[in-house]
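Hi, here's the filled form for the chain we discussed.

Project: internal
Contact: R.S.
Residues: 145
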Amino acid sequence: MAKAKPLSAKQLAVIDDLFGGELDERGVLDKYKISRKLYNRWLTDPAFAVQLDRAVMAAYRRSALFVARNAPLAAEKLVALATNEKGETARKACIDIISMHTPAVSLPVAPVVQSDNRTDRPQITPETAGIILAVLAEEKTLSKS
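And the returned structure, exactly as it came back:
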């Protein structure tokens, strides 16, 4: 079995610049004088694709960490906005609060049990719950006026 050819310094630099630099993809290719045809060939190279995928996953992890680190502050600000005098601002904040979730953590959901002990009744989706709560928040705001 043939051993995979290591990436060139240029290929590694391109990957680094795609994720760490200020240039977009076309700008990075221009910087290194790489044609679209060559770049497309690199994308089909398993070694390049693996290294690129690693960089993509690392970027997603950094992003998820940033969001997780700032989630308490965002939630606090959304709760404050939910009590805003402006109905539309409060409604949007309520929708955002309801739609907040952590994709890395999956909480178990108890099935809905009907009186005949069946669990085939459809669940309310998060989107539907958001709409319902938004309408309730809007009604509450209107009743205060």
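Let me know if anything looks off before we file it.
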